[in-house]
Design goal:
single chain, 211 residues, mainly beta, Porin, 8-stranded antiparallel barrel, 3-stranded antiparallel beta sheet, 2 helices, elongated
Length: 211
């Protein structure tokens, strides 16, 4: 009976820690990340209307370190996002690429041994824009020399981990990023600068591996 009791205690201990987000643990996630900008710009030179930016889906990656059983530090990365930039009257006039590395501190709710670990977090986003180009439609409208200013802004996240076993998990998360940029270009050879708010929601569905 004593042996059975000891075995039960050991098995109970193993079971409760099998799914735990433990202090000192490191895990990575990879999956689809869809950026959906929610804002745009005011009218561009009156006749062109405001800038709007399309959605785009890429490979999203996160790396998380658990400082305690409830506090995590997470870095978000992705393959470059590619957006079409348009205006009302002219349609799509340009393409823009960006990378949005984001660092957040997170609070994981519930018991460390639970298979479900919801969390929220807040931190800082840095968005790098590159390979900005007007297409033939934009060039025909007399536009050239497109560039976007890189952006610093606040970021927030809410998500849920479901722990399949000791090594693997699946995740769903929603991010919000404060991204403001100056869109610089020439119209008929005259330099222009238009303030544009992107402020995207990012929806990520991923699988993760824990170390």
């Amino acid at each position: 009976m004593k042996k059975l009791a000891v075995a039960a205690v050991i098995l109970s201990s193993i079971s409760s820690s099998a799914f735990a987000h433990e202090a000192g643990e490191f895990f990575i996630r990879a999956g689809s990340a869809t950026v959906r900008p929610t804002e745009g710009s005011d009218n561009v030179l009156g006749s062109l209307g405001g800038f709007n930016v399309s959605n785009n889906t890429q490979l999203g990656l996160t790396a998380t370190y658990m400082a305690t059983e409830n506090i995590g530090i997470e870095l978000l990365a992705a393959t470059p996002f590619r957006h079409k930039v348009g205006t009302g009257p002219t349609g799509n006039i340009a393409t823009v690429h960006h990378l949005p590395p984001t660092l957040v501190a997170q609070w994981y709710f519930g018991d460390a041994g639970s298979k479900f670990r919801p969390y929220v977090g807040a931190g800082l986003n840095y968005t790098m824009f590159f390979d900005e180009k007007f297409n033939d439609t934009g060039k025909a409208a007399g536009l050239s020399d497109l560039s976007l200013k890189n952006s610093w802004g606040a970021a927030g996240v809410a998500g849920l981990d479901y722990l399949i076993n000791r090594d693997w998990l699946i995740n769903a998360s929603v991010w919000y990023m404060d991204i403001d940029t100056d869109v610089r270009f020439k119209a008929g050879g005259v330099q222009q600068s238009v303030s544009t708010r992107l402020d995207p929601w990012v929806f990520m569905f991923s699988a993760g591996y824990r170390f």
